[in-house]
Amino acid sequence: MSLYPGLDRPRSPLYRKFWAAMFFVLVVVSCLGLYGATKYVDYTWRWYRVPQYFFYQEEVTIRTELDGEVTAVEQDTKGSEVTVAALDGTVEKYAIPGANVRVEEGDFVYPGDVLGSSKEWKAGLFLTGLWITLKVSLISIVIGMVFGLGTGLARISDNPLLKWTAITYIELVRGSPLLVQLMIWYYVVGTLINQLAATWGLPNVPNLWFGAIGLATFTGAYTAEIVRAGIQSVHRGQMEAARSLGMNYSEAMRKVVMPQAIRRILPALAGQFISLIKDSSLLGVIAVRELTKVTREVVSASLQTYEMWFVCALLYLVMTFTLSVIVQYMERKAV
Q1: pTM recorded for the entire structure
Q2: What pLDDT score does 145 carry?
Q3: Domain 62-121 maps to which CATH number in 3.90.320.10, 2.40.30.10, 1.10.1200.10, 2.40.50.100?
Q4: Residues 48-75, buried b or exposed e (16+ Cβ, 10 A)?
């Protein structure tokens, strides 16, 4: 086995090449099998329609607000400028990027008439959902890490207040589904906070923040147990040695115990944070337009079910794989 080199007899030079080739054969056969299966349900693949949900060109129209006559249309390398003179003598100039001007000198225009238009590149629904997912995941990871670290330290404290509070928080969160907790955060806590904010004349808190706090609270409970296990895995002699050198409890934890514990808990934390990114797909139920929710909207608009859900899965894979690579890099640096 690779974890214990030297214990088994040497492999043939073709051993690795053969099984590597078998892996790619398995992938190709799986893809062909899926493609062949779709033929039986009479499905037409239209991958060419996917890019427009990442970037698209939107036509922006420039409309006049005056009731009057077009007195001048000037063009230069940057675009055009249309001058409209109203009946009461008011003159306004409208800049139109590009050369798509729809009026001429002497034309009479009314408020709302289109003077010209231009095309601008805009981010599509997939990029919008991807950004929201990244944003809410990053916020949740940071807050969840703070919750988990604090609760993990409180969990091993000999102070009954800290220890029992940590245990109560962990058991409450672990004892109910994440979906139910998100409902409570949005429909109960969110309603109370926003009503109090309205009473005090403050703006409402966006639902994204209730979703982020819900995810962070959920992740923090599991992170706390990971942190506790990591600290307790460090041999007691490390703490005793640090204290014998004159360090107090905080210094010993910060300089001796925690560096060793963090190195051990990094793989488990990576798994927890990867789960958090995937759990963010539940935020669609509280009207957060994250990646899964916008994919449902794209499927409803395009009727291209297979392509869009494959793209959605690929985007999640990119995010989780990137996080996994970052954590592996941190593990190598921590050794």
Answers
A1: 0.80
A2: 92
A3: 2.40.50.100
A4: eebeebeeeeeeeebebebbbbbeebee
